[in-house]
Amino acid sequence: REDAALVKALLFGDKHGLDPGLEEDFRTAGVSHLLAVSGMHMAVMSQLFTLLFRAAPLPRKLRPLGPALCIAAFMALTGFAPSVARSGIMYLVLLLGEGLSRRADSMNSLGFAVLLLCLANPYAAADIGLLLSAAATAGMLLLSAKTEQWLLARQPETRWIRRALGPVNSAVSTSVGAVLFTLPIILP
Q: Which residue of 30, 45, 52, 173 lies most exposed, with the fewest beta carbons within 10 A?
């Protein structure tokens, strides 16, 4: 029962039935954000759905339909939490573009997702989860590549060093973008 409650909390952000002591342990370890459903959860689930359906013997134009339906179902399972809905809408736009043989633009997809959420619920603009999710996403989209290039330019040109530091550069540049854009929301 405890294991099922933990899996439910990690996948869907549903903390009902989770032992309060375990929740406190997550807080103490500084990883309580893993129990709050977020765009990260949607990213993991979307990648899983996409991989599963890409292997299916479907016509190319129909392949995005399976992941899109699964993404919509996952959004519903999480109660359309604003950060999950933002991420889900962005993935749905991406999949729609793929189905129409078009390339989606990430910043436009982010703007469209936030617009839809605010049209459906104007108070969503004040939701801290949505603000943090949208800001972090914008920061990653706008700064990650530039930060990674900046880091790469300051490293030795030895091939094995660049290969070893590649994942580190990627993680640092993604984090820098997310942190810089969420600071104005977190600090006040």
A: 30
Judge whether residue 90 has pLDDT over 80: yes
CB 94 within 8 A of CB 110: no
Please state, rounded to an integer, the average pLDDT across all residues of the chain: 85
User: Taken in order 17, 46, 118, 131, is the CA torsion positive or negative?
Assistant: positive
Instruction: Yes or no: say if 25 and 69 are a contact pair by the CB < 8 Å rule.
Output: no
CA distance 169 to 103: 26
Q: Look at residue 105 in the predicted model and tell me its pLDDT.
A: 86
Strand runs labelled E in the chain: none
In this prediction, residue 68 carries a pLDDT of 92
Residue 128 has pLDDT above 80, yes or no: yes
DSSP 5-52: HHHHHHHH---TT--HHHHHHHHHHT-GGGGS--HHHHHHHHHHHHHH
**CA-to-CA distance for 56 and 70, rounded, in angstroms?**
14
Residue 30 buriedness (CB in 10 A; 0-12 / 13-18 / 19+): exposed
Q: How far apart (Å, rounded) are the C-alpha atoms in residues 11 and 18?
A: 13
**pTM (2 d.p.):** 0.72
